[in-house]
Specification:
Blueprint (H helix, E strand, L loop, with lengths): L1 H4 L4 E4 L8 H8 L5 E12 L2 E8 L6 H27 L6 H8 L7 H10 L6 H9 L12 E2 H10 L3 E4 L21 E5 L5 H13 L3 E4 L20 H13 L1
Parallel strand pairs: 1-2, 2-4, 5-6, 6-7
Antiparallel strand pairs: 2-3, 3-5
Bound molecules: zinc ion.
């Protein structure tokens, strides 16, 4: 609804590690004449780095996707149990069950849910403080995440009939990785993103062209972010959309 009001005509839904919202979004989009692109944002690892990979135009009901979601949900629960155990060792009264209850049954369990609980219980002053002192990388309650490698994630997207694109490389300082993407089985790069600076968009555009990749883009709209501009304030220019659709047809 919000996307429609903002005059968006094509919207990709790319929730973190799940396609669970696609069916509902499709239903909401249909009467509005809004095209809904089924997608996902996968957590991946490449060497020592953690990167996000977008999967677009994929078949959400594909059995490989279901298998992935089940594995990932179990991995998230294992990680959350580890985080809670580490916090308990620090003397905090926080249990896995509490985090699960506070986040709701349908939620994709993640660190922000514990961070909120740490703030609510007075163990941290803010979200930022919770990550800084306890939950962030290298901090006492940090537990490594089990994720697919970038190559495995690209294969998953391809198996499900979709197009993969490295998400927000300008934010993750991963622009220098772009020339290797095709060899890893990745189709493209998210060039247009709210946090990409104009010089990064120019550089990424050039790299996409030089390496025969496709470009994607969007507003990375999260309802929870305070600076919630409407979806569509950053979008994919039509000429790039056309190239993306051609790539989808070849799949
Ligand atoms: Zn991301």
């Amino acid at each position: 609804m919000r996307a429609h009001r903002a005059q968006v005509d094509c919207l990709a839904l790319t929730d973190h590690d799940t396609v669970a919202g696609v069916a509902e979004a499709r239903q909401a989009a249909r009467p509005l004449g809004l095209e809904l692109v089924p997608g996902i944002e996968l957590s991946t690892r490449h060497g020592e780095r953690y990167l996000h990979l977008l999967g677009l135009f994929l078949q959400p009901e594909h059995p490989r996707m279901e298998e992935y979601e089940n594995w990932r949900a179990a991995a998230r629960r294992r990680r959350m149990r580890g985080i809670c155990a580490a916090l308990q060792r620090q003397g905090f009264a926080i249990s896995f069950e509490e985090v699960q209850e506070a986040s709701g049954p349908a939620a994709v369990l993640a660190r922000p849910h514990v961070a909120r609980l740490l703030v609510d219980k007075g163990y941290a002053r803010s979200f930022h403080d919770a990550f800084n002192r306890w939950l962030g990388s290298g901090r006492p309650a940090y537990v490594q995440d089990e994720v697919l490698t970038l190559r495995e994630a690209a294969t998953l997207v391809r198996d499900c009939g979709g197009i993969s694109a490295l998400a927000h490389p300008g934010v993750d300082k991963a622009i220098e990785l772009v020339p290797q993407l095709a060899d890893l089985g990745v189709d493209g790069v998210e060039v247009f993103h709210p946090d990409h600076k104009p010089h990064q968009v120019r550089r990424l555009t050039k790299l996409v062209q030089d390496n025969k990749l496709v470009a994607t883009g969007g507003s990375d709209f999260h309802l929870s972010t305070p600076k919630a501009e409407d979806p569509g304030w950053v979008c994919l220019p039509p000429e790039w959309m056309l190239l993306l659709r051609m790539r989808v047809q070849q799949r």
